[in-house]
Amino acid sequence: MNASDTPRIPGVTDGETAPWFAEPWQAKAFAMTVSLHAAGVFSWTDWAEALSTRLHGATALPDGASSAAHMAQYYAAWFDALEEMTTRAGLTDPALLAETTETWQRAALATPHGTPIRFEAGLTDHG
Hints:
Shape: globular
Order of helices and strands: HHHH
């Protein structure tokens, strides 16, 4: 397969340059994946299988969906695959991850719009 045969993901590649990232977390997830592979945590074959499974399981976007929608779906699948791979490798504790996610969600709900979200704000239930 050469570069011209590579499927394009709307909003993610322009066919000429490296991937674009709409949000900093997407670039960080990409970099973490490359670093974990370089460290021998997983093979590219295993990574591709995990990501492919997530992408194939995603709900089809409607015709005419924006590039931003495609990009958001792609990197959500990427992040889920990365979480799966780090959990499988014993680098992530699923219970701690769930607890941390809940804390961030509480922090977001407790934060006024336009104000930076602080993790500490979610440590106590503000509900």
